[in-house]
Amino acid sequence: MRRTVRFFAVLMLGMALFFTGCNSPKSTPKEAFFTWEDSYHRQVQLDTAPRRIVSISPAITEVMFLVGAQDKLVGVSDFCNYPPETEKITKVGGMHNINFEVLLSLHPDVVLIGSMISQKDVDAIEKMGIPVICIVEESSLEGMAEMMEVVGKITQHEEKGNTEAAKWKEKIAERKANAPAPENRKCVYYVVGFGDGGDFTAPKNTHIQEIIELAGARNAGDSLTGWNISREYLFKVDPDIIVVRQEDKDAFVSRYPYTLLKAVKNNHVYPIESGWIDVVSLRNMQAVDYIRTLTIDR
């Protein structure tokens, strides 16, 4: 009798555990906050929304301010100097000399980088247990729109990022639509480098050429494949307008043989803020509009 009672007790307990197991909810893996194939074709994932971000890209830093995510920035590169508020943010070194000790001390949840960071540095950061996401500064201004969307999503400002990306695309489309016919465009030469070390300007398929074309002008280097330009080529083109970094203008216009160029003789050499044009950034549109004013009735 005792064995029978014991048997039924064990049986009932087993059935209870069986049905309890059947009715209990199955655990499901938690969905990642952000997954993406970054610009280095790596599958990257953030399990949770980052609260502490280090940006080693001037363009990304500017976009973070644009979408309203600057409060998440705990560190930036030495070259992230715009907007002025970046002066108050801890610097982690340059593109090729990252201060890993300072970077680690900031306890970032993610490091956002552009195209200038080496694979060696990426590996070093990830070995410290810090995720790295590469968002390349595209050679096309239109690529900035994607950067706005991605940064907006990473920083939980997705709506703002999408809105600003749409505005950016509209600005580009508007300037393309209002550009003069190719045969009516002034020739613009942007001085990347000059002097004894050689002459350099933006070749075709660069963001600087796109800036000049969006401004309704023709890039003097549009037939070049490299940044170097010969003096012979420069004087053959003899541009209508020359744009040079504001800190270099006086030296350029007073130096032989540039004094023989048509634009120099006609006082059509104009200074520009280097941050507007040298790298892909939100300020490229300021360069577009500035150069556009230079080409009107000149």
Number of DSSP-assigned strands: 12
Helix content: 25-40%
CATH topology of the largest domain: Rossmann fold
- 3D shape: elongated
What series of H and E elements makes up the topology? HEEEHEHEHEHHEEHEEHEHHEHH
**Regions with little confidence, pLDDT below 50 for 5+ residues:** 1-28
Query: Strand order, biggest sheet?
Result: 4-3-5-6
CATH superfamily of the largest domain: Nitrogenase molybdenum iron protein domain
SS content category:
alpha/beta
The residue-averaged pLDDT reads 88
CATH architecture name of the largest domain: 3-Layer(aba) Sandwich
Q: Largest sheet, if any?
A: 4 strands, parallel
Q: Approximately what portion of the residues adopt beta-strand conformation?
A: 5-15%
Q: Tell me the number of helical segments per DSSP (H or I, 4 or more residues long).
A: 12
What does this protein look like?
The strands form four sheets. A four-stranded parallel beta sheet has the order 4-3-5-6, sandwiched between helices. It has a four-stranded parallel beta sheet with strand order 9-7-11-12. A two-stranded antiparallel sheet has the order 1-2. Mean pLDDT is 88; it is low at 1-28. It has helices spanning 2-23, 58-66, 100-105, 119-127, 143-154, 158-177, 207-214, 231-237, 249-253, 262-265, 274-277, 284-295; strands spanning 34-37, 43-46, 53-56, 73-76, 110-113, 132-134, 187-191, 199-200, 218-219, 228-229, 241-245, 269-272. It starts with a helix and ends with a helix. With 298 residues, it is of the alpha/beta class. The protein folds into two domains: 34-174, Rossmann fold (3-Layer(aba) Sandwich), CATH 3.40.50; 180-295, Nitrogenase molybdenum iron protein domain (Rossmann fold).
